[in-house]
Amino acid sequence: MNKISIIIPIYNVEQYLPQCLDSIINQTYKNLEIILINDGSTDNSGKICDNYAKVDNRIHVFHKKNEGVSSARNLGLEKCTGDFIGFVDPDDFIELNMYEILYNEQQRTNADIVWCNYLLYYSANNQLLGEINSNIVYNLLNIKQKNKFYSDLFYKYHMKAYLVNKLYKKELLSNLKFPYKKSFEDLFIFISLINQANIISFTNKNLYYYRQRKNSICYKNSTQSVFNFDMIEAYIKSSIDYAYFSNNKKISNILFFKSYLYALKNILFYQQRNLYKSEEKYIINKLKSLLKTNISIKNKFTILRITYFPNLYRKIKLLKHPNLIKK
What is the pLDDT of residue 44? Predict the structure, then answer.
């Protein structure tokens, strides 16, 4: 039975950390290596980590100064020894059979990445489904299946660049580093992982609970730098199979539409949004430039709605879900 390394970057999450760790140590898949990176927490998170390590020898705790989630995950990658890697955020939690299901699916398909559905978790009585609504396996070495994967990714399922609801072959991450002190580090790594993968498998089982809260690790980390979307765009063009995208302008435009829309939505729900006005303006202009391209009418309407009336968009979302602050 192969070992799965689970990397958890931790910063001031004492309220949620026990639920997260309980959901991991009680997994039905037992051959786990649980790597806790305490990124300079100033609350009791570090003590909670040490206490759990005393009762479960699969847990390895590393304490470091506060440098951000990317630095913490990079240290986790350096320390892990598993055959497969998973990521969990410390304020989230997972179903007790999540890694057993993902591992069995990987063994069945030999997938480089196995992807499960998730729930946006506000409270026990207020949950929203994630993105995937069917089981499917893509062989990206087959051009037809590759076309279908990108079509499903951008059009059908609108799947997010989250790292946490997936299981990866270790070799995919062996030469990767999360960008230091950059926002949306998931997007950088996600592109490289997709670019390396030959087989990707999805299951529509809801196995990951993605907690929606105001004080997430991403937004409360004081060392996090401002956004650099020029770098994101350059990274997309250099890392992904850009020749493929260049030959399919519609999918290429959708790639940037999804990336910038994701970034803008995060800024709109950022607690210190006033610090990011120049970045907000930059992304809005980028999105408006896509109005002249061949993306769908629906996506053009989305651009109009969110770029010309961002404050209204934000207020409507917060009225529907008053606790909504995206990670």
Answer: 97
